[in-house]
Specification:
With 362 residues, the chain is an alpha+beta fold. The chain has a single domain, classed as DD-peptidase/beta-lactamase superfamily (Beta-lactamase, 3-Layer(aba) Sandwich), CATH 3.40.710. Helices cover 37% and strands 18% of the residues. The protein is built from 13 helices and 13 strands. It has a 5-stranded antiparallel sheet, with helices on both faces. Strands 1-2 form a two-stranded antiparallel sheet. Strands 5-8 form a two-stranded antiparallel ribbon. Helix 1 runs antiparallel to helix 12, helix 4 packs across helix 8 and helix 7 crosses helix 8. The radius of gyration is 23 Å and the shape is globular.
Length: 362
C-alpha cells in the first residue's frame, strides 16, 4: 500500500472543479431506483354523531398548502445538508503518520491494474453485496458466445416481472446490442434476465458460467446467484470489483458502452414500436470528460448493498488508468463524491507514487 503525507492538492484542482460543479448540478439524478406501488388514501367526511364526538375537522386548503410548502422546505434543507456533508472530504492520520482518506462508505480501493498494486484501500477484501455491479459480469459472459448483436429477441413476461428498474415491456422485440446498452447504462434488470435467458447456455448454466468466469479471473471473493444484482446474495469485494472493472473497461465491446452517457433506440413488435432514450447512471461520466477520461464504470444499489460504484478512470496529463471502487456508500451522491475525493487525494501524489502509464492486462 502506497501513500504520502503531502497535503498539496494543487495538481487536483481541475478534477475538483470539474466533478464538484457537475455533481452538485446533478444532485438527486441518476440513482438506480426500486419502484414501489403507489399508495391510495381514502378520505371520508365526518358528519352527525361523529362530529359530535369531537372528530378532527378537515384541514383547510390554505393549511394543506402551508404544510406542503413546509415539507418541501424541509426536504430541500435535508438535501442541502446531505450534499454539504458528502462534498466535504475527510482525512485521518494512519498509524505511520500519513494523511489518508477517511471514507464514509463501507469499503473502497484505488487499484493500479497495470502493476497489480493497491495504492490505497479500506476493507477492500470484505465480502459484500454488490447489487447491479453484477451486470458487468453478465455482459462479459454474454459476449463470450454472442456473434450477431443485431439479432432481435422477444422480451417475455418472465423478463419483466418484478424487474424493478426496466424500460422494457412484454413482447417488445429488441436487438441484442440495445439490450447490452440497457444493461450497462440505466441498469435495466429485465435486460439482464433476457440476456441470460437467450444465451446458448440457458439461464441456469449462464449463472454457473458467471461464477466460473469469476474463478478464471481470480476473483476469489465473488459469487453470483442472478444476472441482475437484485438478489443480495450476489457478493464480491472492492478488490475483486476493481480488477473486474479494469478487465471490462478495456474490452472493446463493453468499454465503449460504459463510456456512453446517453443512448436511444427503437423497439419493434406490437404496433409501431417505441423510441427509448436512456442515460447512464454514472454521474461521473455524465458530468463530462473534463481532464479525466472515464474508461468504464457501473453503479449498483439495493438496500443491503448500499450505494456502490466501480470505475476505471484515466488520470490527467498522460497518467495511468486506475480502478476506483466504492461499496456501501450511504447515498446516491455519496458514492460519486467518495470517488472524487479519492481521485483528488491520489492525483496530488501521482509523481510521488511513481506510477507508470499502463495498458490494462487481460
Amino acid at each position: 500500500m502506497l501513500f504520502s503525507r503531502t497535503s498539496n492538492f494543487g495538481t487536483a484542482r481541475a478534477i475538483v472543479l470539474w466533478l464538484g460543479a457537475s455533481l452538485a448540478a446533478t444532485a438527486g439524478v441518476g440513482a438506480e431506483t426500486v419502484s414501489r406501488p403507489g399508495r391510495s388514501t381514502i378520505h371520508s367526511t365526518t358528519t352527525g354523531a361523529a362530529a359530535k364526538r369531537g372528530a378532527r375537522p378537515r384541514a383547510s386548503g390554505a393549511a394543506k398548502a402551508r404544510a406542503r410548502v413546509a415539507r418541501i422546505r424541509a426536504a430541500r434543507k435535508n438535501s442541502a445538508r446531505a450534499l454539504a456533508e458528502a462534498s466535504t472530504p475527510r482525512y485521518r492520520t494512519d498509524e505511520s503518520g500519513n494523511v489518508v482518506p477517511d471514507i464514509r462508505a463501507a469499503a473502497a480501493i484505488i487499484y493500479d491494474p497495470a502493476t497489480g498494486k493497491v495504492l490505497w484501500e479500506e476493507n477492500s477484501q470484505d465480502e459484500r453485496s454488490i447489487a447491479s455491479i453484477t451486470k458487468v459480469m453478465t455482459a462479459i459472459v454474454f459476449l463470450e458466445s454472442a456473434t450477431d448483436l443485431n439479432q432481435e429477441v422477444v422480451i417475455t413476461r418472465a423478463d419483466t416481472l418484478h424487474a424493478s428498474t426496466t424500460y422494457l415491456r412484454t413482447n417488445d422485440r429488441i436487438r441484442l446490442a440495445d439490450l447490452l446498452h440497457l444493461l450497462l447504462l440505466p441498469s435495466d434488470n429485465a435486460a439482464a434476465r433476457a440476456l441470460a435467458r437467450i444465451s446458448p447456455l440457458g439461464y441456469d448454466a449462464f449463472i454457473a458460467r458467471m461464477n466460473q468466469k469469476a474463478e478464471d479471473l481470480g476473483l476469489d471473493h465473488t459469487a453470483y446467484v442472478d444476472p441482475s444484482g437484485l438478489l443480495s446474495d450476489n457478493i464480491s469485494s472492492a478488490y475483486d470489483m476493481a480488477r473486474l472493472i479494469a478487465f471490462a473497461g478495456e474490452d472493446d465491446r463493453i468499454g465503449p458502452i460504459m463510456r456512453t452517457p446517453e443512448y436511444a433506440f427503437r423497439t419493434s413488435g406490437p404496433g409501431a414500436g417505441r423510441i427509448i432514450t436512456v442515460h447512464s447512471t454514472n454521474q461521473i461520466l455524465r458530468a463530462g470528460a473534463g481532464d479525466v477520461e472515464v474508461r468504464g464504470g457501473k453503479t449498483g444499489f439495493i438496500s443491503k448493498a448500499g450505494y456502490c460504484l466501480a470505475t476505471l478512470l484515466k488520470l490527467p496529463q498522460g497518467g495511468p488508468s486506475l480502478a476506483v471502487v466504492v461499496l456501501g456508500a450511504n447515498s446516491n451522491l455519496g458514492r460519486f463524491w467518495e470517488t472524487r475525493h479519492l481521485l483528488s487525494w491520489l492525483s496530488a501524489r501521482t509523481q510521488l507514487l511513481g506510477l507508470a502509464s499502463p495498458a490494462v492486462s487481460q
